[in-house]
Design brief:
The complex is a heterodimer. Chain A is an all-alpha fold. Chain A is 76% helix and 0% strand. Chain A contains 17 helices and no strands. The longest helix of chain A has 36 residues. Chain B has four helices and no strands.
Chain lengths: 386, 76
Protein backbone atom coordinates (compact mmCIF):
# COMPACT_ATOMS: atom_id res chain seq x y z
CA UNK A 1 0.00 0.00 0.00
CA UNK A 2 1.56 3.32 -1.07
CA UNK A 3 0.97 5.96 1.56
CA UNK A 4 -0.51 9.12 0.03
CA UNK A 5 -0.55 7.61 -3.44
CA UNK A 6 -2.79 4.52 -3.51
CA UNK A 7 -6.54 4.92 -3.49
CA UNK A 8 -6.59 2.16 -0.87
CA UNK A 9 -4.58 4.32 1.48
CA UNK A 10 -7.01 7.24 1.22
CA UNK A 11 -10.01 4.99 1.71
CA UNK A 12 -8.44 3.33 4.75
CA UNK A 13 -7.21 6.65 6.17
CA UNK A 14 -10.66 8.13 5.77
CA UNK A 15 -12.38 5.23 7.48
CA UNK A 16 -9.82 4.87 10.26
CA UNK A 17 -9.76 8.56 11.06
CA UNK A 18 -13.48 8.57 11.92
CA UNK A 19 -12.93 6.95 15.35
CA UNK A 20 -10.12 9.46 16.00
CA UNK A 21 -12.51 12.32 15.34
CA UNK A 22 -15.11 10.72 17.59
CA UNK A 23 -12.54 10.43 20.38
CA UNK A 24 -11.59 14.06 19.89
CA UNK A 25 -15.18 15.24 20.01
CA UNK A 26 -15.75 13.25 23.18
CA UNK A 27 -12.66 14.95 24.64
CA UNK A 28 -10.81 11.66 25.05
CA UNK A 29 -7.10 11.15 24.35
CA UNK A 30 -6.38 10.12 20.76
CA UNK A 31 -2.74 9.02 21.17
CA UNK A 32 -3.18 5.28 21.72
CA UNK A 33 -5.64 4.98 18.87
CA UNK A 34 -3.30 7.01 16.66
CA UNK A 35 -0.51 4.59 17.48
CA UNK A 36 -2.68 1.61 16.53
CA UNK A 37 -3.58 3.23 13.20
CA UNK A 38 0.09 4.03 12.67
CA UNK A 39 1.12 0.43 13.23
CA UNK A 40 -1.61 -0.70 10.82
CA UNK A 41 -0.32 1.56 8.05
CA UNK A 42 3.30 0.69 8.73
CA UNK A 43 2.47 -3.00 8.28
CA UNK A 44 0.32 -2.39 5.20
CA UNK A 45 3.01 -0.25 3.59
CA UNK A 46 5.69 -2.85 4.20
CA UNK A 47 3.90 -5.85 2.70
CA UNK A 48 5.97 -5.76 -0.49
CA UNK A 49 9.18 -5.90 1.55
CA UNK A 50 8.46 -7.53 4.89
CA UNK A 51 12.11 -7.45 5.95
CA UNK A 52 11.90 -3.66 6.13
CA UNK A 53 9.54 -4.08 9.09
CA UNK A 54 12.26 -5.94 10.94
CA UNK A 55 14.75 -3.22 10.13
CA UNK A 56 12.27 -0.60 11.32
CA UNK A 57 11.73 -2.50 14.55
CA UNK A 58 15.46 -2.84 15.12
CA UNK A 59 15.87 0.85 14.39
CA UNK A 60 13.26 1.76 17.03
CA UNK A 61 14.92 -0.50 19.59
CA UNK A 62 18.37 0.93 18.86
CA UNK A 63 17.24 4.55 19.00
CA UNK A 64 15.21 4.02 22.13
CA UNK A 65 18.22 2.39 23.75
CA UNK A 66 20.42 5.34 22.76
CA UNK A 67 17.96 7.91 23.99
CA UNK A 68 17.40 6.10 27.27
CA UNK A 69 21.14 5.60 27.72
CA UNK A 70 21.96 9.22 26.93
CA UNK A 71 19.97 10.57 29.86
CA UNK A 72 22.04 9.07 32.70
CA UNK A 73 25.21 9.45 30.59
CA UNK A 74 24.74 13.20 30.39
CA UNK A 75 24.08 13.41 34.12
CA UNK A 76 27.31 11.52 34.75
CA UNK A 77 29.65 13.02 32.15
CA UNK A 78 28.12 16.41 31.39
CA UNK A 79 28.95 18.21 28.17
CA UNK A 80 31.52 15.74 26.94
CA UNK A 81 32.48 15.79 23.27
CA UNK A 82 33.02 12.03 23.00
CA UNK A 83 29.62 11.41 24.52
CA UNK A 84 27.96 13.86 22.14
CA UNK A 85 29.56 12.60 18.95
CA UNK A 86 29.55 8.95 20.02
CA UNK A 87 25.81 8.89 20.56
CA UNK A 88 25.07 10.95 17.46
CA UNK A 89 27.15 8.61 15.28
CA UNK A 90 25.44 5.56 16.74
CA UNK A 91 22.11 7.22 16.06
CA UNK A 92 23.14 7.95 12.46
CA UNK A 93 24.57 4.46 11.91
CA UNK A 94 21.43 2.87 10.40
CA UNK A 95 21.05 5.68 7.86
CA UNK A 96 24.75 5.64 7.02
CA UNK A 97 24.73 1.85 6.55
CA UNK A 98 21.66 2.13 4.34
CA UNK A 99 23.12 4.89 2.16
CA UNK A 100 26.60 3.38 1.83
CA UNK A 101 25.37 -0.14 1.05
CA UNK A 102 23.12 1.49 -1.55
CA UNK A 103 26.11 3.07 -3.23
CA UNK A 104 27.91 -0.28 -3.11
CA UNK A 105 25.04 -1.82 -5.02
CA UNK A 106 22.74 -3.60 -2.61
CA UNK A 107 21.21 -1.46 0.06
CA UNK A 108 20.65 -2.96 3.49
CA UNK A 109 18.63 -1.78 6.47
CA UNK A 110 16.27 0.41 4.48
CA UNK A 111 12.72 1.05 5.52
CA UNK A 112 10.05 3.64 4.83
CA UNK A 113 10.94 7.00 6.31
CA UNK A 114 14.44 6.11 7.54
CA UNK A 115 15.92 9.40 6.36
CA UNK A 116 13.29 11.44 8.15
CA UNK A 117 13.15 9.37 11.31
CA UNK A 118 16.87 9.89 11.76
CA UNK A 119 16.30 13.64 12.17
CA UNK A 120 13.88 12.98 15.01
CA UNK A 121 16.22 10.60 16.84
CA UNK A 122 19.24 12.88 16.50
CA UNK A 123 17.19 15.86 17.66
CA UNK A 124 16.33 14.01 20.84
CA UNK A 125 19.92 12.94 21.48
CA UNK A 126 21.12 16.54 21.06
CA UNK A 127 18.38 18.00 23.24
CA UNK A 128 19.03 15.43 25.98
CA UNK A 129 22.68 16.52 25.84
CA UNK A 130 21.56 20.13 26.16
CA UNK A 131 19.43 19.28 29.15
CA UNK A 132 16.16 20.12 27.42
CA UNK A 133 14.79 16.58 27.70
CA UNK A 134 15.22 14.46 30.80
CA UNK A 135 12.80 11.58 30.32
CA UNK A 136 11.48 9.44 27.51
CA UNK A 137 8.48 7.12 27.48
CA UNK A 138 8.83 4.17 25.06
CA UNK A 139 5.31 4.17 23.63
CA UNK A 140 5.29 7.92 22.98
CA UNK A 141 8.80 7.67 21.53
CA UNK A 142 7.77 5.04 18.98
CA UNK A 143 4.63 7.01 18.13
CA UNK A 144 6.70 10.15 17.58
CA UNK A 145 9.08 8.28 15.29
CA UNK A 146 6.49 6.35 13.29
CA UNK A 147 3.52 8.78 13.36
CA UNK A 148 1.91 7.71 10.12
CA UNK A 149 0.84 11.06 8.57
CA UNK A 150 4.48 12.16 8.58
CA UNK A 151 6.35 8.86 8.27
CA UNK A 152 6.85 8.90 4.51
CA UNK A 153 8.55 12.27 3.93
CA UNK A 154 7.98 14.47 6.94
CA UNK A 155 7.28 17.27 7.91
CA UNK A 156 9.98 16.80 10.53
CA UNK A 157 8.39 17.45 13.90
CA UNK A 158 10.22 18.17 17.17
CA UNK A 159 9.78 15.85 20.15
CA UNK A 160 8.98 18.47 22.79
CA UNK A 161 6.39 20.11 20.57
CA UNK A 162 4.92 16.69 19.71
CA UNK A 163 4.86 15.81 23.40
CA UNK A 164 2.75 18.86 24.24
CA UNK A 165 0.15 17.86 21.65
CA UNK A 166 0.33 14.21 22.66
CA UNK A 167 -0.54 14.87 26.31
CA UNK A 168 -3.12 17.56 25.57
CA UNK A 169 -6.78 16.64 25.42
CA UNK A 170 -8.44 19.57 23.75
CA UNK A 171 -11.85 21.01 24.39
CA UNK A 172 -14.39 19.84 21.84
CA UNK A 173 -14.58 23.20 20.05
CA UNK A 174 -10.82 23.59 19.84
CA UNK A 175 -10.53 20.06 18.49
CA UNK A 176 -13.27 20.67 15.91
CA UNK A 177 -11.45 23.81 14.76
CA UNK A 178 -8.37 21.65 14.28
CA UNK A 179 -10.37 19.10 12.29
CA UNK A 180 -11.72 21.87 10.08
CA UNK A 181 -8.27 23.29 9.44
CA UNK A 182 -6.94 19.79 8.92
CA UNK A 183 -9.59 18.93 6.36
CA UNK A 184 -8.95 22.17 4.50
CA UNK A 185 -5.19 21.53 4.37
CA UNK A 186 -5.78 17.94 3.31
CA UNK A 187 -8.09 18.93 0.46
CA UNK A 188 -5.74 21.67 -0.69
CA UNK A 189 -2.85 19.20 -0.57
CA UNK A 190 -4.76 16.70 -2.68
CA UNK A 191 -5.49 19.36 -5.30
CA UNK A 192 -1.83 20.45 -5.27
CA UNK A 193 -0.44 16.97 -5.67
CA UNK A 194 -2.99 15.20 -7.87
CA UNK A 195 -4.29 18.05 -9.99
CA UNK A 196 -1.62 20.74 -10.24
CA UNK A 197 1.44 18.54 -9.75
CA UNK A 198 0.28 15.83 -12.11
CA UNK A 199 -0.76 18.39 -14.70
CA UNK A 200 2.56 20.19 -14.64
CA UNK A 201 4.35 16.83 -14.77
CA UNK A 202 2.50 15.97 -17.96
CA UNK A 203 3.50 19.32 -19.46
CA UNK A 204 7.09 18.53 -18.53
CA UNK A 205 6.87 15.16 -20.28
CA UNK A 206 5.30 16.60 -23.44
CA UNK A 207 7.47 19.64 -23.85
CA UNK A 208 10.60 19.30 -21.74
CA UNK A 209 12.29 16.05 -22.60
CA UNK A 210 14.21 16.86 -25.80
CA UNK A 211 17.94 17.51 -25.74
CA UNK A 212 17.58 21.08 -26.96
CA UNK A 213 18.13 24.31 -25.06
CA UNK A 214 14.49 25.32 -25.42
CA UNK A 215 13.29 21.98 -24.14
CA UNK A 216 15.74 22.10 -21.23
CA UNK A 217 14.49 25.53 -20.22
CA UNK A 218 10.91 24.28 -20.27
CA UNK A 219 12.00 21.25 -18.26
CA UNK A 220 13.62 23.49 -15.67
CA UNK A 221 10.51 25.55 -14.97
CA UNK A 222 8.00 22.74 -15.21
CA UNK A 223 10.08 20.45 -13.02
CA UNK A 224 10.40 23.17 -10.39
CA UNK A 225 6.66 23.74 -10.35
CA UNK A 226 5.98 20.00 -10.35
CA UNK A 227 8.32 19.50 -7.40
CA UNK A 228 6.57 22.23 -5.45
CA UNK A 229 3.02 21.04 -6.10
CA UNK A 230 3.92 17.43 -5.48
CA UNK A 231 5.88 17.95 -2.28
CA UNK A 232 3.84 20.82 -0.86
CA UNK A 233 0.74 18.83 -1.72
CA UNK A 234 1.99 15.79 0.15
CA UNK A 235 3.07 17.99 3.08
CA UNK A 236 -0.33 19.67 3.28
CA UNK A 237 -2.05 16.28 3.31
CA UNK A 238 0.33 15.03 5.98
CA UNK A 239 -0.19 18.09 8.16
CA UNK A 240 -3.95 18.05 7.60
CA UNK A 241 -4.20 14.40 8.57
CA UNK A 242 -2.00 14.96 11.62
CA UNK A 243 -4.39 17.66 12.83
CA UNK A 244 -7.20 15.08 12.92
CA UNK A 245 -5.10 13.13 15.39
CA UNK A 246 -4.59 16.17 17.60
CA UNK A 247 -1.02 16.75 16.43
CA UNK A 248 -0.16 20.13 14.90
CA UNK A 249 2.65 18.97 12.65
CA UNK A 250 4.66 21.96 11.38
CA UNK A 251 3.96 23.36 7.93
CA UNK A 252 6.56 22.68 5.28
CA UNK A 253 5.94 25.37 2.68
CA UNK A 254 5.01 29.03 2.70
CA UNK A 255 4.59 30.39 -0.81
CA UNK A 256 8.25 29.73 -1.68
CA UNK A 257 8.03 31.27 -5.13
CA UNK A 258 7.43 34.66 -3.54
CA UNK A 259 10.90 34.61 -1.95
CA UNK A 260 12.84 37.83 -2.40
CA UNK A 261 16.25 36.35 -1.63
CA UNK A 262 17.88 32.99 -0.93
CA UNK A 263 17.67 33.35 2.84
CA UNK A 264 13.97 34.09 2.54
CA UNK A 265 13.63 31.03 0.27
CA UNK A 266 14.91 28.65 2.94
CA UNK A 267 12.34 30.07 5.33
CA UNK A 268 9.63 29.12 2.84
CA UNK A 269 10.76 25.84 1.19
CA UNK A 270 10.85 22.51 3.04
CA UNK A 271 10.73 24.57 6.19
CA UNK A 272 10.90 21.71 8.68
CA UNK A 273 14.09 20.45 7.04
CA UNK A 274 15.72 23.85 6.66
CA UNK A 275 14.93 24.78 10.26
CA UNK A 276 16.26 21.45 11.51
CA UNK A 277 19.53 22.06 9.71
CA UNK A 278 19.63 25.64 10.98
CA UNK A 279 19.06 24.66 14.61
CA UNK A 280 21.15 21.48 14.82
CA UNK A 281 23.96 22.00 12.33
CA UNK A 282 24.37 25.62 11.23
CA UNK A 283 23.81 27.35 14.57
CA UNK A 284 25.89 24.88 16.55
CA UNK A 285 28.71 25.04 14.03
CA UNK A 286 28.63 28.85 14.13
CA UNK A 287 28.67 28.85 17.93
CA UNK A 288 31.64 26.48 17.96
CA UNK A 289 33.49 28.69 15.48
CA UNK A 290 32.83 31.84 17.49
CA UNK A 291 33.95 30.24 20.74
CA UNK A 292 37.02 28.77 19.08
CA UNK A 293 37.77 31.98 17.18
CA UNK A 294 38.22 30.04 13.98
CA UNK A 295 37.62 33.01 11.68
CA UNK A 296 38.66 36.62 11.75
CA UNK A 297 35.64 37.81 9.84
CA UNK A 298 31.99 37.15 10.64
CA UNK A 299 31.31 36.87 6.91
CA UNK A 300 33.94 34.16 6.41
CA UNK A 301 32.42 32.27 9.32
CA UNK A 302 28.95 32.62 7.85
CA UNK A 303 30.09 31.46 4.40
CA UNK A 304 31.78 28.43 5.91
CA UNK A 305 28.64 27.68 7.87
CA UNK A 306 26.29 27.98 4.91
CA UNK A 307 28.43 25.81 2.65
CA UNK A 308 28.87 23.06 5.25
CA UNK A 309 25.22 23.22 6.27
CA UNK A 310 23.82 23.10 2.76
CA UNK A 311 26.50 20.63 1.68
CA UNK A 312 25.29 18.18 4.31
CA UNK A 313 21.73 18.85 3.22
CA UNK A 314 22.63 17.96 -0.35
CA UNK A 315 24.39 14.76 0.67
CA UNK A 316 21.45 13.78 2.90
CA UNK A 317 19.31 13.63 -0.25
CA UNK A 318 21.75 11.13 -1.73
CA UNK A 319 25.36 10.52 -2.68
CA UNK A 320 24.72 11.28 -6.35
CA UNK A 321 26.69 14.08 -7.95
CA UNK A 322 23.60 16.14 -8.65
CA UNK A 323 22.56 16.07 -5.00
CA UNK A 324 26.02 17.10 -3.84
CA UNK A 325 26.02 19.87 -6.43
CA UNK A 326 22.57 21.01 -5.29
CA UNK A 327 23.74 21.38 -1.71
CA UNK A 328 26.92 23.22 -2.58
CA UNK A 329 25.04 25.43 -5.05
CA UNK A 330 22.71 26.63 -2.29
CA UNK A 331 25.57 26.95 0.19
CA UNK A 332 27.49 29.22 -2.16
CA UNK A 333 24.39 31.23 -3.03
CA UNK A 334 23.58 31.81 0.63
CA UNK A 335 27.16 32.89 1.31
CA UNK A 336 27.13 35.31 -1.62
CA UNK A 337 23.75 36.63 -0.48
CA UNK A 338 25.07 37.26 3.02
CA UNK A 339 28.21 38.99 1.79
CA UNK A 340 26.21 41.12 -0.63
CA UNK A 341 23.59 42.13 1.93
CA UNK A 342 26.11 42.99 4.60
CA UNK A 343 28.61 44.82 2.41
CA UNK A 344 26.70 46.48 -0.39
CA UNK A 345 25.76 50.12 0.12
CA UNK A 346 23.45 49.81 -2.87
CA UNK A 347 21.55 47.04 -1.12
CA UNK A 348 21.25 48.90 2.17
CA UNK A 349 20.00 51.98 0.38
CA UNK A 350 17.33 50.33 -1.74
CA UNK A 351 16.39 47.14 0.11
CA UNK A 352 12.91 48.26 1.00
CA UNK A 353 12.00 49.74 -2.39
CA UNK A 354 9.44 47.99 -4.53
CA UNK A 355 11.44 47.94 -7.76
CA UNK A 356 14.44 46.50 -5.90
CA UNK A 357 12.32 43.79 -4.32
CA UNK A 358 10.87 43.01 -7.74
CA UNK A 359 14.29 42.56 -9.31
CA UNK A 360 15.44 40.63 -6.26
CA UNK A 361 12.41 38.34 -6.52
CA UNK A 362 13.05 37.72 -10.24
CA UNK A 363 16.70 36.81 -9.70
CA UNK A 364 15.87 34.60 -6.71
CA UNK A 365 13.09 32.81 -8.58
CA UNK A 366 15.39 31.90 -11.44
CA UNK A 367 18.26 30.87 -9.17
CA UNK A 368 15.83 28.64 -7.29
CA UNK A 369 14.54 27.08 -10.50
CA UNK A 370 18.07 26.40 -11.68
CA UNK A 371 18.76 24.76 -8.33
CA UNK A 372 15.86 22.38 -8.90
CA UNK A 373 17.16 21.74 -12.40
CA UNK A 374 20.36 20.49 -10.76
CA UNK A 375 18.37 18.59 -8.14
CA UNK A 376 16.37 16.76 -10.82
CA UNK A 377 19.55 15.24 -12.23
CA UNK A 378 18.66 16.51 -15.69
CA UNK A 379 21.26 19.28 -15.71
CA UNK A 380 24.17 16.96 -14.98
CA UNK A 381 22.74 14.50 -17.49
CA UNK A 382 22.52 17.12 -20.24
CA UNK A 383 26.04 18.43 -19.66
CA UNK A 384 27.44 14.93 -19.49
CA UNK A 385 28.57 14.82 -15.87
CA UNK A 386 26.22 12.00 -14.96
CA UNK B 1 22.24 42.09 34.03
CA UNK B 2 19.55 43.78 31.94
CA UNK B 3 21.99 46.54 31.00
CA UNK B 4 24.64 44.05 29.90
CA UNK B 5 22.19 42.14 27.76
CA UNK B 6 20.92 45.31 26.08
CA UNK B 7 24.51 46.38 25.42
CA UNK B 8 25.22 42.98 23.85
CA UNK B 9 22.15 43.25 21.66
CA UNK B 10 22.94 46.78 20.56
CA UNK B 11 26.41 45.67 19.52
CA UNK B 12 25.26 42.53 17.71
CA UNK B 13 22.35 44.20 15.92
CA UNK B 14 24.37 47.31 15.23
CA UNK B 15 21.57 49.58 16.38
CA UNK B 16 20.82 51.29 19.68
CA UNK B 17 17.11 51.13 18.94
CA UNK B 18 17.07 47.85 20.86
CA UNK B 19 17.83 49.81 24.00
CA UNK B 20 15.34 52.56 23.25
CA UNK B 21 12.51 50.18 22.40
CA UNK B 22 12.93 46.89 24.28
CA UNK B 23 9.73 45.51 22.82
CA UNK B 24 10.77 45.95 19.22
CA UNK B 25 10.48 42.79 17.12
CA UNK B 26 14.05 41.98 16.12
CA UNK B 27 13.05 39.57 13.35
CA UNK B 28 10.44 41.77 11.67
CA UNK B 29 12.70 44.81 11.79
CA UNK B 30 15.60 42.89 10.24
CA UNK B 31 17.77 43.63 13.26
CA UNK B 32 18.81 40.09 14.03
CA UNK B 33 19.26 37.05 11.80
CA UNK B 34 20.22 33.42 12.53
CA UNK B 35 23.90 34.32 12.67
CA UNK B 36 23.39 37.20 15.08
CA UNK B 37 21.27 34.90 17.22
CA UNK B 38 24.08 32.37 17.56
CA UNK B 39 26.49 35.15 18.44
CA UNK B 40 24.08 36.27 21.15
CA UNK B 41 23.85 32.76 22.62
CA UNK B 42 27.65 32.52 22.73
CA UNK B 43 27.98 35.90 24.45
CA UNK B 44 25.34 34.99 27.01
CA UNK B 45 27.27 31.82 27.79
CA UNK B 46 30.60 33.64 27.98
CA UNK B 47 29.29 36.53 30.05
CA UNK B 48 26.86 34.81 32.42
CA UNK B 49 27.82 31.15 32.17
CA UNK B 50 24.27 30.36 31.11
CA UNK B 51 24.06 27.74 28.36
CA UNK B 52 21.18 28.29 25.96
CA UNK B 53 20.98 26.04 22.92
CA UNK B 54 19.79 27.06 19.42
CA UNK B 55 16.86 24.65 19.37
CA UNK B 56 15.70 25.45 22.86
CA UNK B 57 13.39 28.32 21.99
CA UNK B 58 10.86 29.02 19.32
CA UNK B 59 11.46 32.25 17.44
CA UNK B 60 8.62 34.02 19.14
CA UNK B 61 10.06 33.33 22.59
CA UNK B 62 13.19 35.31 21.79
CA UNK B 63 12.23 37.95 19.27
CA UNK B 64 12.25 41.10 21.41
CA UNK B 65 14.91 42.46 23.80
CA UNK B 66 12.54 42.10 26.73
CA UNK B 67 11.75 38.48 25.93
CA UNK B 68 15.45 37.71 25.69
CA UNK B 69 16.11 39.36 29.04
CA UNK B 70 13.26 37.37 30.60
CA UNK B 71 14.59 34.06 29.30
CA UNK B 72 18.12 34.76 30.51
CA UNK B 73 16.90 35.86 33.94
CA UNK B 74 14.80 32.70 34.23
CA UNK B 75 17.97 30.68 33.89
CA UNK B 76 20.22 32.60 36.24
Amino acid sequence: MGLFSDAGFFAAAGALTVPAVILGIKEKPIGMYGLAVTLFFVIMASKAQPISLIYMGLYCVLEYGLVRGMIPAVKRFGRNGYLYWGFILMSLAPLIVYKLTGVAGHSVFGFMGISYMTFKSVQMIIEIYDGLIDSVRPVEFVYFLLFFPCILSGPIDRSRRFHEDYITVRKKQDYLDMVGTGMYKFMLGAVFKFAAGSGVYQAMLWLGMKNTLGSAIIYMYTYGCYLYFDFAGYSLMAVGLSYMYGIKAPDNFNKPFLSTDMKDFWDRWHISLSHWFRDFIFSRLMMRSIKGKWFKSKLTAASFGFIVNMGVMGVWHGLDIHFIMYGLYHGVLLSLTEIYQKKSKFHKKHKKERWYLGVSWFITFNLVMFGFFIFSGRFTQLVGIE
Amino acid sequence: MEEKILDMLAEICGDDIVKENPDINLMDEDLMDSLDYTELLVEIETEFGIVMSPSEFTRDQMDTPNKIIAQVKARS
